[in-house]
Structure formats: C-alpha cells, structure tokens
C-alpha cells in the first residue's frame, strides 16, 4: 500500500510540474505506456525506483527501435547479424521487465548489450573516422549504467569502456586501414581523453546517484515522519469526545473527527463532506451566524461562545472556540472549530450554586447561633456575678449588727425618765455610748460593702442589657453593608467576651494603627471576630500557660492597601500539617469541636471580598489569624465593575 501511494504521489508530482496552459495528456499517456511495460512489483516500488524502472523500460524500447532500424539500414551483413543479436537482447530486457521482481537482470542485459554493440561498431567501422570514440552516445553508457545498476556495478561497465578506449588506438593503428603505427600522435591523446571522459562520466553519475539516494532517503524519512505525525494527530483527534473541525477560507470542510460528524449528522440532518461547505444552505439563520464567525476568524480574531442546541430531544450546551490557522508566513489559511459538551458541567454548576446558597444561609444561621451562644455565655457569666453579688448582700444583711441597734434603742426608750442617770450611774448604761459608737462603725462598713456589691450588680445588669441590645441591633442589620470603624467593632466583640477573659486571666493587648473605615456587613464581620476570639480563648485554655496573652492588631496591607485584622495568641499553636486544613469543613483539633466555625468564617470573609488565613510556628508556640478586608474606597469601584 505504501509503494502504491508513493507511485501515485510521484505521478501526481509529474503532472503538477507541467506548466499551466499546456496539455498534460501526452505526458500522462507516455507514463501510462511505460508503466504498462513494468511488472506489478516494479510499478509498486518507491518513487525513485519507479522513475528508474521507467527509464529502463524507455531505454530498452528506444534501443530496440534503433537496433531494428539499423538492421534495415546497415548494408554490411556482419553488422546486421550483430544488430540482430542486439535486437534479441534489447527485446529480452523489455520482456523481462513485465515478469521480474527486480530490475537488475534486465538492466544488466541492457548495459551488456549496449557495450557489445558499441564495441562491435568500433571494430567493424575501423575504416571509418577514427574519432568515433568521442561520440556522445558512448559517453552516456557509464552514467546510464550507474543510474540503472548502481555505482559499484556501474564501475565495471565504466572500466570496460576505459579499456576499450585505451585498446582501440592500438588496434586501429595496427590493423585498421591506413595504419600509421605510432606516428599519429593525436590519436593516443584523443582516446586517453575518451578514457578519462568515460571514467569521469561514471564518477559524475556516482556522485549524482549518491546525492539522489541521500536526498531520496531524506524525503522518504520526512514523508514517514509526516505520515507518523499525521497518524498520531489523527489518533489524537479521534480519541477525544470533543468536536474538532478544520475549514478552509471558503468555509469548506478540510477534516473533522468522528464525534463532530456524528453531532453534525444529528444537528444538520447530513454528515459533512470533505471539500463541501460545512454549513448547508437550509440552515438559514445558523448559516448566517457562522458565516459572521468565520469572517471574524479569518480577520485574525479568536472567539469563544457558549451555545445551546437540542439533539435527539435533549437540551445540550456546547463550549465553542473558533480560531484562525496561520501558515509559516503568518497568513491565515483556514479556521479550526473546537466544541465541547459542557451540559453536565452546567448542571453541576447550577447544583453547586444552589448548594452554595444553602451553605451561605446555613453559615449565616450558624454565625447567628455562634454569636447567640457568645451572648448566652456572657449573659450566663454575668448572671453568675449577679448571683454572687446578691448572695453576698443577703449574707451581709443576715449577719448585720442592725438588731443590736434596735435593742439599744429599746433599752434607751425604757429608761427615758431617768436616761441621764442611767447613762452616768448605771453600769450597763455607762457601756451604751461606746457600744453605739462601735455599732455605728460596723454599720458603716456594712453599708459600704452593700453599696459595692450593689454597684457590681448594677454593672452586671448594664452589661447584660448591652449584650442583648447589641445582639438585637446586629440581627436587625444583618445582610446590609454600612461604613464601619473596625477598632470600635473589635472593642464591641471584646466586650462580648469581657467576663470570660477576665475570669480566665487573659490579658488583652491592642495594636490599632490609623486605618480608614470599611463598608461591610456589620453582622458578618462581628461573626468572624467573635469566632476568632473564641478560638483564641480555647487555645489559651488548652495550652495551660500561666501568662495568657491575646493580641489584636489592625494594620493596612503594605502591597494591596487593604485592611488587615490580626488575632494572635500564645496558646497551644497549630501543627504544620494542619495549617492548610484549618478552614476545611468538618476539620477540628478540639475534642468537643464541630469543625464549622472557621469554615463559615472563611466563607463570610470571601463574601465580603476578603480572605481569612492562619499561621503558626508550631505546637506550643501560639497562632495568628489574619483577616484581610477591602476598605470603603474599594467598594464603589467593585460595584461599578460588577
């Protein structure tokens, strides 16, 4: 099959080399006649071998024709016999070409017959001109032998002609008519030149044959590489389920893979045909649309579309890209169309969008629950303080010396008639002033302690009122963006944890830089801050360190100009292998954790066009959570862009 393709390619190359405006029929007729003289094996050779076999067939026929003409025209009977033998040899070579698998035997017979014929003519025409050895026909013999037999076999033919050219002067001067011995000094140099010419003819033919063989080998290797590349590309195109189509500048199909043909058959009602317009006339609006797209592609514009089609009653979505094809000089010579079925991806995106909205709603509810939990926790701690203060006040009142004052007053009331004598003369009465003085001091201390506890009770009640009112305020404003001053919001988040931080002995350090306000959802930002503070508190509790320190910093980002909120602690820290998983849903390092708080905080940060990250030197070395937020100046630009 490969040889047949090569022969056909060679014939096509011959025909394509004919100048425009000339008739190609005579050339094709001659090539067909020459091919008819060759066997099937000789016709199916490589392109160079086919050319050589055609030359061999043409030479055999031509020499046979010349030999037949010579038989008729030569008057000498001896020459007729020799030429008749040559006719038989040339005819045998011509007949063999129809039967043999290799050209070597017919070529050897042809070269041998040519040598015998030429040598015989030299001998039998000894009475003719002595310069017959310079004849151009004889000079072609070594070159023809090299072309037909190869350089090594052709060397024997060339050496035979060299020997003839060197022996003929001696034979001519000794046996020819009008022999002049060695007196004629021009004869020998002439035939030495002839011998050199024969050898040079072989040498030039060998060089040409070697160059031709090398060039042909290079061509065949290149063609093989091209075929392999084409087969590889074809296999690659056929192995994909995507639609791959190549069109020329007129919109005619050059190639298309099986997937494209199958879809086009369903979509257009007919499969595309190579060389025909890819979009049939009956498509109407679709044809006009694609003509516009092809025009843009031929103008050098790359395009990408998402297009919906209905195939076999199924609604499908395709991602289509139309790109120009450039040749080596940068000129556009066609268009490629790639189409991918993204129906499943679109459905998955819809489901993912629904899941995302559901998750956002859940995260908001979870965030509200997180804040509500913090509120309840703080209110509970405050209620504990209220309970302690109330108990202390009750205990103080129960242990109060106030009943002693009542008894002293009753005693004085009984002794009202002789009160002065009672206070100055009666032993019990003499003790009453000092008793009242001591009782006054005791009651004053009890009064001071009661006021202190009542103030604490009042502060606790005020704190509960603040926490509850703040929760109500954030519940009302959730989902709306407003201009916020971050330091103020952080202080409010700290107040939600104030009691627990104080009871645990956690020292708060603030590092607030001058930063612009932000335009964000107050509820979401508070949700993140409360969660980060809760995590820091839990990390400090788990660490068991005596000096519990929590640092909150606010800084502008040096590169992006955005706002950075950093919550750092010297708690238990994070293992390096867990750092990348801290915001993954369901991942937690706490024994009683649910792995949801940091995840919803990260989602809330993303919804606010921000980002939440964490870092830690390692276990036991604390951790830092960084919340990156856009400033209020960025929000108008983002909304305008959206």
From TrEMBL:
Residues 1-24 are annotated as: Disordered. Pfam families: HATPase_c (PF02518), PAS_4 (PF08448). Residues 301-354 form the PAC domain. The chain crosses the membrane at residues 55-73, 79-97, 104-125, 131-149, 156-173. Residues 1-17 have a biased composition (Low complexity). Coiled coil: none annotated. The keyword Transmembrane applies. InterPro entries: HATPase_C_sf (IPR036890), HATPase_dom (IPR003594), His_kinase_dom (IPR005467), PAS (IPR000014), PAS-assoc_C (IPR000700), PAS-like_dom_sf (IPR035965), PAS_4 (IPR013656), Sig_transdc_His_kin-like_C (IPR004358). Keywords: ATP-binding, Kinase, Membrane, Nucleotide-binding, Transferase, Transmembrane, Transmembrane helix, Two-component regulatory system. Residues 482-633 form the Histidine kinase domain. GO terms for molecular function: ATP binding; protein histidine kinase activity. This is histidine kinase.
């Amino acid at each position: 099959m490969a040889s047949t393709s090569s022969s056909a390619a060679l014939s096509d190359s011959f025909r394509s080399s004919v100048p425009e405006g000339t008739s190609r029929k005579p050339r094709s007729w001659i090539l067909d006649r020459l091919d008819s003289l060759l066997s099937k094996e000789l016709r199916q050779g490589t392109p160079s071998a086919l050319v050589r076999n055609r030359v061999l067939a043409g030479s055999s026929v031509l020499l046979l024709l010349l030999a037949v003409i010579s038989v008729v025209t030569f008057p000498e009977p001896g020459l007729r016999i020799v030429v008749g033998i040559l006719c038989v040899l040339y005819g045998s070579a011509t007949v063999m070409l129809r039967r043999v698998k290799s050209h070597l035997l017919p070529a050897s017979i042809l070269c041998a017959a040519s040598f015998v014929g030429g040598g015989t003519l030299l001998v039998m025409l000894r009475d003719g001109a002595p310069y017959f050895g310079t004849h151009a026909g004889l000079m072609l013999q070594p070159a023809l032998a090299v072309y037909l037999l190869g350089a090594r076999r052709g060397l024997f033919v060339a050496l035979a002609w060299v020997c003839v050219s060197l022996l003929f002067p001696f034979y001519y001067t000794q046996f020819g008519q009008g022999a002049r011995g060695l007196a004629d000094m021009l004869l020998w140099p002439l035939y030495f030149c002839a011998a050199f010419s024969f050898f040079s003819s072989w040498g030039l033919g060998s060089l040409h044959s070697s160059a031709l063989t090398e060039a042909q080998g290079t061509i065949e290797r290149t063609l093989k590489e091209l075929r392999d590349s084409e087969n590889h590309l074809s296999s690659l195109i056929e192995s994909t389920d995507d639609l791959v189509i190549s069109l020329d500048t007129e919109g005619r199909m050059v190639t298309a893979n099986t997937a494209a043909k199958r879809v086009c058959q369903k979509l257009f009602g007919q499969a595309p045909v190579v060389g025909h317009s890819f979009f049939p006339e009956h498509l109407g609006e679709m044809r006009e649309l694609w003509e516009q797209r092809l025009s843009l592609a031929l103008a050098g514009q790359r395009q990408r579309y998402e297009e919906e089609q209905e195939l076999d009653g199924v609604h499908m979505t395709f991602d289509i890209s139309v790109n120009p094809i450039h040749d080596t000089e940068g000129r556009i010579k066609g268009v490629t169309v790639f189409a991918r079925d993204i129906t499943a991806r679109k459905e998955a995106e819809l489901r993912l969008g629904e899941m995302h909205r559901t998750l956002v709603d859940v995260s908001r509810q979870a965030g509200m629950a997180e804040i509500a939990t913090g509120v309840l926790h703080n209110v509970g701690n405050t209620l504990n303080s209220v309970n302690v203060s109330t108990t202390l006040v009750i205990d103080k009142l129960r242990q109060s010396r106030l009943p002693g004052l009542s008894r002293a007053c009753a005693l004085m009331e009984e002794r009202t008639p002789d009160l002065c004598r009672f206070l100055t003369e009666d032993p019990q009465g003499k003790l009453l002033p000092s008793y009242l003085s001591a009782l006054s001091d005791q009651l004053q201390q009890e009064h001071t302690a009661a006021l202190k506890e009542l103030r604490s009770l009042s502060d606790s009640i005020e704190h509960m009122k603040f926490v509850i009112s703040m929760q109500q305020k954030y519940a009302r404003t959730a989902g709306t963006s407003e201009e916020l001053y971050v330091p103020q919001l952080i202080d409010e988040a700290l107040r939600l944890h104030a009691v627990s931080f104080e009871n645990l002995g956690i020292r708060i350090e603030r590092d607030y830089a001058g930063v612009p306000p932000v335009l964000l959802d107050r509820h979401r930002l508070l949700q993140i801050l409360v969660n980060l503070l809760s995590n820091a508190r839990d990390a400090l509790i788990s660490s068991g360190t005596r000096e519990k320190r929590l640092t909150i910093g606010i800084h502008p980002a040096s590169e992006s100009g955005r706002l950075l909120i950093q919550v750092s602690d010297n708690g238990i820290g994070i293992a390096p292998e867990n750092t990348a998983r801290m915001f993954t849903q369901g991942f937690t390092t706490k024994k009683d954790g649910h792995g949801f708080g940091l995840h919803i905080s990260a989602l809330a940060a993303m919804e606010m066009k921000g980002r939440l990250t964490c870092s830690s030197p390692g276990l036991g070395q604390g951790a830092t959570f960084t919340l990156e937020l856009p400033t209020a100046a960025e929000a108008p630009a983002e909304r305008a862009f959206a």
